[in-house]
Specification:
mainly beta; 3 helices; Porin; 19-stranded antiparallel beta sheet
Length: 457
């Protein structure tokens, strides 16, 4: 057998309101980082993580990401429910929407002497969002209802991890998906509220392979099925016509997980022939404590064709846990397959997703964006740009790393069809507890299509 080698005058008031809100939110969730390094190494069979991916508190859509993801108070298109469901109340026509994302990531690790000791490259593409939205009016109450699908965290990727003595090939499919039923309502001229009920489902299939000619090649597979329920609450308050203040809260939940692992290992016998062993194990009592999240934002429109936005979000990854996780031991030739019951292979309680005790932190994001619409005769051409700083959920030698990002986007309106594209570049560097310098860069490209049905007068 062989393995294949293979996110006017009111200006001072806006700034004061936003930064007072951000300061209070940060103070209420503050935590002191632990001074000790994490004692538990990352589990070999779990090569997937969320590093340099969009934080779960973010939503979807090329328009939003073109503005740096600062969309909590500006959400006014079909992707609104993924950011702030109160924004659905802005919709006045039935809409169909679709978002696609293409991404790549490169993580280089350098030793103290300078050369690269590990190069981790991955790329993937997948549908990101799909929704149908319909507006309604009941007396003084107006709004819209929506049924949507969102891939909140995508694991669709092909990944190559190159080290000095081996190459690991990781192939994965799937994601943490949400089917949401949401609605937003305009209660008054100044106040809008919204809510979504979210069914989390799917998971991922993963293959980790160390191909020949390295001694003891191995292929390990995991099937991770994930399900749970939670709620998102949102509000948008407009103290003035040009200013929106938004807030969103996403409840935490305990997800049910079924995990099946299998592995095949090759050995070389003294006579040079290949010997093969295998092992497999599954259990359905895994649980994930998925964290709650909150966000606040402001959007100011000093002119009809210019919008400025600023958001702050925080996700309680410090409380994320996984119960009953296990790894699958190698079966030595001539022995019965071992069951993962020892402290080395079975873990009743670990932080999630770092799997490293003492390592996990809340993630915090500050996002800013601008949208300018060029209007000439019947032409409307939007230009968008943004910046964000994203504190990661894992801890390094000097605390949780802070990654930076820049975004750009534009769009086009062709009759009832809205086309938008956005590019997101994120990068950061940090020193890990093995005293290696890590440089992470990711690129994502979003494309959105929204169809607005024109109802007959």
């Amino acid at each position: 057998m062989s393995f294949l080698s293979r996110s006017p005058r009111t200006g001072p008031a806006v700034a004061a309101t936003v930064f007072m809100t951000l300061g209070l939110a940060d103070a209420s969730w503050a935590q002191s980082p632990s001074p000790t390094p994490p004692p538990t190494p990352r589990l070999f069979q779990d090569e997937l993580d969320l590093q340099a991916n969009a934080n779960v508190v973010q939503g979807s859509g090329a328009r939003a990401f073109g503005m740096g993801g600062a969309f909590l108070a500006r959400a006014d298109d079909a992707t609104a429910a993924s950011w702030n469901p109160a924004g659905l109340s802005y919709l006045r026509a039935p809409e169909l929407s679709f978002v696609w994302v293409d991404s790549d990531l490169n993580d280089r690790k350098r030793g103290t002497a300078g050369p690269v000791v590990e190069n981790d490259r991955r790329s993937g593409r997948a549908p990101d969002f799909l929704a149908v939205t319909y507006p309604f009016e009941f007396g003084f109450l107006s709004g819209a209802a929506q049924l949507s699908f969102q891939r909140v965290i995508s694991f669709d990727s092909r990944r190559t991890i190159t080290e000095a003595d081996r190459v690991r090939l990781v192939s994965s499919n799937g994601g943490f998906d949400v089917i949401a039923l949401g609605s937003g309502w305009q209660l008054s001229r100044r106040l809008r509220l919204g809510i979504t009920l979210n069914r989390w489902l799917d998971g991922y299939d993963q293959t980790v392979e160390v191909p020949a000619p390295r001694p003891n090649p191995t292929r390990q597979t995991s099937k991770f099925d994930f399900s749970g329920w939670n709620l998102h609450f949102g509000s948008i308050w407009s103290p003035w016509e040009s200013l929106n203040l938004g807030a969103v809260f996403k409840t935490g939940f305990k997800a049910r997980v079924t995990l099946h692992r299998s592995r095949i290992d090759l050995f070389e016998a003294p006579d040079g022939t290949s010997l093969e062993t295998s092992n497999a194990y599954s259990r359905d009592d895994l649980r994930i404590e998925f964290p709650r999240a909150m966000g606040v934002g402001a959007s100011w429109r000093p002119r009809s064709n210019l919008s400025l936005a600023l958001d702050y979000t925080r996700t309680r990854w410090s409380s994320g846990r996984i119960e009953n996780l296990f790894t699958l031991p190698r079966t030595e030739f001539g022995q019965n397959p071992p069951v993962p019951q020892s402290p080395r292979d079975f873990f009743p309680d670990l932080p999630y997703p770092t799997l490293n005790d003492g390592d996990q932190q809340d993630s915090k994001q500050l996002r800013a964006g601008v949208e300018y619409v060029l209007i000439k005769n019947r032409l409307k051409w939007p230009f968008r740009a943004g910046y964000f700083t994203d504190t990661q959920y894992f801890r390094a030698v000097r605390g949780a790393p802070r990654f930076q990002g820049v975004t750009a986007g534009t769009g086009l309106i062709i009759g009832p069809v809205l086309l938008d594209v956005a590019y997101v570049h994120q990068s950061g560097s940090y020193t890990d507890f093995e005293i290696r310098r890590n440089r992470v860069e990711s690129n994502r490209f979003y494309a959105s299509v929204i169809y607005r049905h024109r109802r007959r007068p």
